[in-house]
Design goal:
The complex is a heterotrimer of chains A (258), B (276) and C (334). By secondary structure, chain B is an all-alpha fold. Chain B contains 12 helices and no strands. Chain B has a single domain, classed as MetI-like (MetI-like fold, Orthogonal Bundle). Chain B has helices at residues 2-7, 11-33, 66-102, 104-119, 122-133, 137-148, 150-163, 167-174, 179-196, 199-215, 226-234, 242-275. Chain B starts with a helix and ends with a helix. Chain C contains 11 helices and 10 strands. In chain C, a hairpin with a 2-residue loop joins β9 (284-289) and β10. The chains are: A alpha/beta (258), B mainly alpha (276), C alpha/beta (334). Chains in contact: A-B, A-C, B-C. The structure holds adenosine-5'-triphosphate and magnesium ion.
């Protein structure tokens, strides 16, 4: 069974009065516990696809099936309830939280909204979530701006997994992190995936990162799919022009420098 | 703490805060310093100031103690000013947040209503409202708030429109938060600072409007108001000008104090923001 | 090779009670070399760049010296002019550089540490300093420092913040040319057009008259580079200049910088968090950690035989196209 099946998705915007396709006829599937990467240059439509899949914006055409049901057909309270199964982690963990929030509140919200724990039980759940992502439960009392960038991204992941989703969308979720922290976060994500069978839609323009964590990759160019397939195979031997350009542009630590 | 120090750095803020402090002390102390009815007769009519030290500011046409009236008037002015401004800010923030957050039809309707209120001069609106409903403290507060909420509504809407696009609002939607909770719990608190920056102007305007209504005899008849005192004194303006001048000065100082203190707050928070 | 720049015991403290952003750093930048400074967020890379450019705010406490060895032999026409920051360079620099090395950065003695707390390190996000340095002022005695714009070109991470949003880009570049090379407006515009061609902007004639918001991120960064090299600076500082760009545009900008530096014989100070990117461009790499220079060496040595464990850890953390995927590593472990 697939977790997510997107078919013929399209989204048009207007630029200078003229319509242009930000996403054009895009189809892909994600299986449980699988990581599908979306790669492509800036403006190729990666974030737009993420927002469409999350129903933050509505498509002009196409179909989204989530956990076997037509996801575009639900709305209102039903949609809000469905959202528990489909979560997101943003690029900039500082912008992704209410500037006034504390760690505890950020984690309390999903538990409260989806009725996953009574008010009395929630502090315990929050502590468990923090431990799950490798943080000290004592951090719960801190304000979001009082913790480091790496800790913040862990909190974002804790919030995303609080409702036990089957799919998490990660839009450049590790791009703003230091390399050492990035490695730890990626390992945390893989660890969670193995244990809870979470599927990831992993957006990045860094093929090195994609190759490290993704099973399959979809390479986008100007809103359309340029090529897709097994992540390592595509990156080792790209067929499309944009795939070749992306591979060529990735910095290498080689012994024979130019 | 350091924010307070920053606030008191400018002389304008210092002056404003001092005036306000004096007023608040006057308002709070009025029932203690001048117990009993300030409208009761206390001595001979039209006693000029500084003649009798038990009645330092003299008496009015009916022999009432002007100083007692001034103290009790401060109470009314501040109470009405603050209550009306609070109501205006509250209504304005709620309407502005709803309009900005909902967009589409709700936004259009709410903003047309705001336009309608804004095109009618707020004083006329208050005048009409009080003359229809009848003068009492609550009605005066409502009447003033009715003409003052449009400014906060516009500012709140503009702020909400920009906050709405931030990642954390998308994040709140993703976890399934109800739109009303997002609007009022996530967005509104972060949209408030610029709205609150309007409060000094609104309080000052509310105090003036209250005085003007009282001057026209549309204030609460059971309370002493500075506007009422000025109106009273008008009939004997030639013989006893102090009866109008004293509450007039009090009014000007109050408005000035509120305004200066408000500017001080805005400035001290603005400095903070630009530094961080 | 002679040193263009000699930094000795440089310490920088943004707030009186805060930690030092740089701790007694000493470093020589050789004339004509491409030196990369790498490190993680909060390591002090941007502070070093700002200190060298004289862009640290007044209240910032600076100790140590930065000595320049610039021979003042050039005529105003030998090179192009520029700065991404026309507004901070003390306009019209009739500033004479002392030919022999002159100590220019002395402890900001007597500077009342004003309450200006601008710290590029405050954000925790990989310390990529947003180009907010625009409001900062020169903290050095003006008469001894090389002029930003004329002698130093500075490219920030975020081109939108260093370009004036309400001025056509051609005018912004021409203004730098005019200020530092003392050319007429007409000649400055001609020069600006040549510069846009040099940074490989297609259709420079029309781009001269466009505003920054009409350009893509990569194009804006090209314009910022054009402005930075417009006065023919001796030193080009690029502070995370490609971090906001996608991989393809990043590669283009890096190759553009490499080419421009070679053509003009500029010295390059390339600040980056990405060791692989730094290695593709630099002759030497300096590794910073917690405000200290922990390793400095030829790029080849740093990449192939790092002396410090931290440098090795940075290299290991790089996820290249030849690294063993984490997926496999994870699968292997229980
Ligand atoms: N709300 C919007 N209105 C108009 N155009 C938009 C809007 N959102 C996105 N676009 C445009 O749609 C295209 C795709 O944008 P998108 O953000 O999906 O790209 P991306 O692949 O995520 O790029 P990046 O790597 O820079 O994040 C771009 O041309 C963008 O300018
Ligand atoms: Mg994106």
């Amino acid at each position: 069974m697939t977790v997510l099946a997107v078919s013929n998705l399209a989204k048009r915007y207007h630029r200078g009065g003229k319509p242009f396709a930000a996403v054009d006829d895009v189809s892909f599937k994600i299986n449980p516990a699988e990581t599908l990467a979306l790669a492509g240059p800036s403006g190729s439509g990666k974030s737009t696809i993420a927002r469409l899949v999350l129903r933050l914006i509505e498509p002009d055409a196409g179909r989204i099936d989530f956990e076997g049901a037509d996801f575009l057909a639900v709305s209102g309270a039903a949609l809000r309830a469905r959202r528990a199964r489909l979560q997101m982690v943003f690029q900039d963990p500082l912008a992704a939280f209410n500037p006034r929030a504390t760690v505890a509140r950020v984690l309390d919200d999903p538990l409260r909204i989806h009725g996953l724990a009574s008010r009395a039980e929630r502090p315990r759940h929050i502590a468990a979530l923090l431990e799950r992502v490798g943080l000290d439960p004592a951090l719960a009392a801190r304000a979001i701006h009082e913790i480091s960038g790496g800790q913040r991204q862990r909190v974002a992941i804790a919030r995303a997994i609080a409702t036990r989703p089957s799919l998490v969308v990660l839009d450049e979720a590790v791009s703003a992190l230091d390399v050492s922290v990035r490695g730890q976060i990626l390992e945390l994500l893989l660890d969670l995936q193995r244990q809870e069978r979470i599927a990831y839609l992993f957006i990045s323009h860094d093929l090195g990162v994609i190759r490290a964590v993704a099973h399959r990759v979809v390479i986008l160019d100007a809103g359309r799919i340029a090529e897709s397939g097994d992540a390592r195979a595509v990156i080792a031997n790209p067929q499309s022009a944009i795939g070749k350009a992306l591979v060529a542009a990735t910095p290498r630590l080689t012994r024979d420098r130019p | 703490m350091s924010r307070l120090r920053r606030f008191f750095r400018t002389p304008e803020a210092k002056a404003g805060a001092t005036i306000l402090a004096v007023l608040i002390v006057m308002a709070l102390a009025a029932p203690m310093v001048f117990p009993g009815d300030p409208q009761a007769i206390a001595g001979p009519a039209l006693l000029p100031p500084f003649q009798d030290w038990s009645l330092p500011l003299g008496t009015d046409r009916l022999g009432r103690d002007v100083l007692a009236e001034l103290f009790h008037g401060a109470r009314t002015s501040l109470a009405v000013g603050l209550a009306a401004a609070a109501a205006a800010l509250f209504i304005g923030s709620v309407v502005g947040t709803l309009a900005g957050f909902a967009s589409g039809l709700i936004d259009d309707v709410l903003m047309r209503i705001t336009d309608a209120f804004q095109t009618v001069p707020s004083f006329l609106l208050a005048l009409a409202f009080v003359s229809i409903v009848g003068p009492s403290l609550g009605v005066v507060v409502a009447a003033i708030a009715l003409g003052a909420w449009t400014g906060p509504a516009r500012v709140a809407r503009a702020e909400v429109l920009s906050i709405r696009e931030r990642d954390y609002v998308a994040g709140a939607r993703v976890i399934g938060m109800h739109p009303l909770e997002i609007a009022f719990r996530e967005v509104l608190p972060n949209a408030l600072p610029p709205v609150l920056a309007l409060s000094s102007v609104i309080v000052a305007a509310a105090i003036l409007t209250e005085a003007a209504l009282s001057f026209l005899g549309l204030g609460d008849p059971n309370r002493v108001t500075w506007g009422g005192m000025i109106a009273e004194g008008r009939t004997v303006l030639r013989t006893a000008p102090f009866l109008s001048v004293v509450p007039g000065i009090a009014l000007v100082l109050t408005v000035l104090g509120v305004y200066l203190a408000g500017e001080g707050v805005v400035e001290s928070t603005a400095v903070r923001r630009s530094l961080s | 090779m002679t040193a263009l720049l000699s930094i000795r015991d440089l310490s920088v403290r943004y707030r009186r009670d805060g930690v030092e952003a740089l701790k007694g750093l000493s470093l020589d930048v050789k004339t004509g070399e491409r030196l990369a400074v790498i490190g993680e967020s909060g390591s002090g890379k941007s502070t070093l760049a700002l200190a060298v450019a004289g862009l640290l705010a007044r209240g910032v406490k600076i100790e140590g010296t930065v000595e320049w060895k610039i021979s003042r032999s050039r005529t105003p026409h030998s090179f192009a002019p520029p700065s991404v920051l026309p507004d901070i360079s003390p306009s019209r620099g009739e500033i004479e550089l002392s030919h022999p090395p002159s100590p220019i950065l002395n402890a900001a003695e007597g500077e009342p540490a004003a309450e200006l707390l601008i710290s590029p390190l405050e954000g925790e996000m990989s310390g990529r300093t947003e180009g907010g340095a625009v409001e900062r002022q020169l903290s050095h005695p003006r008469d001894t420092i090389p002029l930003l714009g004329r002698d130093i070109g500075f490219v920030f991470q975020d081109p939108s913040s260093s370009l004036d949003p309400v001025m056509p880009v051609g005018k912004q570049i021409a203004e730098v040319v005019r200020t530092h090379l003392k050319l007429s407006w007409r000649d400055s515009y001609t020069k600006a057009k040549t510069l846009l061609e040099r940074v490989r902007i297609p259709d420079p004639d029309s781009v001269l008259h466009t505003y920054p918001h009409q350009l893509s991120g990569g194009q804006k960064q090209r314009v910022a580079i054009a402005a930075a090299i417009a006065a023919g600076p001796k030193l080009l500082i690029a502070d995370e200049a490609t971090s906001a760009l996608d991989t393809i545009v990043q590669a283009e900008i890096v190759s553009l910088i490499r080419q421009l530096v070679a053509e003009d014989g500029m010295t390059l100070l390339f600040i980056s968090h990405d060791i692989a990117l730094a290695a593709t461009l630099a002759d030497r790499i300096a590794v910073l950690r917690h405000g200290e220079l922990i390793e400095l060496g030829e790029t080849r040595q740093i990449v192939e035989a790092p002396r410090r464990a931290y440098t090795r850890a940075l290299l290991d953390a790089h996820l290249g196209l030849d690294a063993e995927p984490l997926l496999d590593r994870q699968g292997a472990s229980p």
